[in-house]
């Protein structure tokens, strides 16, 4: 997966938006105004995603490409290398999990509005 494919995949999620709230070096994807993925454009070799804390530990132990979230809460965020050995599907699973965690944290009314976009 390259950065263009990552961007397209993130924006294919219902209600997903992109922006640069932290400056032009960091592309941020949100759903319902909450971040589900960040990627640095300076090197574009890794991205940060939200993750269930227990799953985060399991994934870090199983895959060298997944580490505690760089510049993020290490309990709830993972950094994932794009240029490692993870398959396209495995990268998509990381994005999907993060998106769903954020979506489920939104108020029910907003969840319903986003669900209607499908």
How would you describe the overall organization of this protein?
There is one protein chain. The chain is α+β, with helices and mostly antiparallel strands and 118 residues long. The chain has one domain: Aspartate Aminotransferase, domain 1. A six-stranded antiparallel beta sheet has the order 1-2-3-4-6-5. A hairpin with an 8-residue loop joins strand 5 and strand 6.
In whole angstroms, the N-to-C terminal distance is 24 Å
Alpha-beta content class: alpha+beta
- The number of distinct structural domains comes to 1
- The CATH topology label is Aspartate Aminotransferase, domain 1
**Approximate shape:** globular
Give the strand order, joined by hyphens, for the main sheet.
1-2-3-4-6-5
Secondary structure elements and pairings:
Blueprint: H1 3-11, E1 16-19, E2 26-31, E3 34-40, E4 46-50, H2 53-62, E5 66-68, E6 77-81, H3 88-105, H4 108-115
Antiparallel strand pairs: 1-2, 2-3, 3-4, 4-6, 5-6
Could you give a short description of this structure?
GO terms for molecular function: DNA binding. This is MmcQ/YjbR family DNA-binding protein. Strands 1-2-3-4-6-5 form a 6-stranded antiparallel sheet.
What attributes does this structure have?
single chain, 118 residues, alpha+beta, Aspartate Aminotransferase, domain 1, 6-stranded antiparallel beta sheet, 4 helices, 6 strands, 38% helix, globular, YjbR
